[in-house]
Amino acid sequence: MIGPANLDYVAHNRGGVLRKGAMKGIVFSGMQPSGTPHIGNKLGALDNWVKMQDEYDCIYGIVDWHALTTGYEDPKEVGRQSLELAMIWLACGLDPQKSTLMLQSAVPEHAELHLLFSMFLSLPRLERIPTYKEKLREIEGRNLTTYGFLGYPVLQAADILIYKSTHVPVGKDQDYHLELTREVAEQFNRLYGQLFPITQTVHTVFPVLPGTDGRKMSKSYGNTSSLTDSEDMIKDKVRNMVTDPQRIKRTDPGRPEVCPVYAYYQAFAPQEAERTAHECRNALRGCVECKLGLVEPVQAVVRPVREGVETWQQQPDEVARILHTGSQQARGRAQQTVTEVREHLGLWQP
Ligand code: TRP
What we know:
CATH architecture of the largest domain: 3-Layer(aba) Sandwich
Number of domains: 2
Order of helices and strands: HEHEHHEHHHHHEHEHHHHH
Helix content: 40-55%
CATH class of the largest domain: Alpha Beta
Strand order of the largest sheet: 1-2-3
Structural class: mainly alpha
CATH superfamily of the largest domain: HUPs
Number of helices: 15
Largest sheet: 3 strands, parallel
Oligomer: single chain
Bound molecules: tryptophan
């Protein structure tokens, strides 16, 4: 859950002018512009980001450089996908009046901080990060034994620390990266003097939504629903969902705890979840009927996003303007930190 704002941050601010909102705690989170986000991303991340807007000073970044760490061979789509992601964010309720919405590559100070961190970070430490080894194995057909891919979590640490973020809302899969971020801050502070806060991870309360086939939800498995899927696509996907494989006949009692359809009821129609579980366990409702009942609750989540995106698509210049303004704001803050970083290192600033 969301913890109290880290007031230590204020103490670290070395008597500088406190920005409005700094007392609230500073949030940074990022998302790669690699394909349309799916319903799990909304429930697991975006809904939480939207809520945090009122409690924290939030900066949300479209991390296009991160997309290049694995997609460097074919970067042509990254620009278009960044704009599309911005539209989805806006349609999901991220509000440029409340939060700073920025594009990573428009704030080159992230790269400067990444470079300076890379000076003291140990290579074996980075190679030991479990997600690195896992991804190397998982992602086939691409050479990922690159400098940039090994440095992925270092760039992430730079994204977070350049705004002196106190809280980062992410999924559990990012824990190793956040651990590294804290170590980077500690190492920097030890080497060059106190500057960075020790960032807290904020886990989403929402349970992980499985894919429509019961496996982990992942674009590469084709078991997701994108946030811009049409009504028909959603209907098909929900109707074709996998259910408890041991429930073969309509009269067999089912096991909701292993059924992805039940997991979706909990997420999309929590008020019906209990009754659904009861009727499943007692074979009072068949799987087909159960899935049909899920179609509308899923539509109700996707529909406003799809329609919102359609509206934003009519005004791409406005979306570009929002990201431009947000990136400029972010850049001002990033430049401030980079100046302090250079001072801490003792670099000559002519
Ligand atoms: N690695 C994150 C992910 O894949 C994306 C990311 C990049 C990020 N920089 C970040 C998340 C900074 C939080 C904070 O989801």
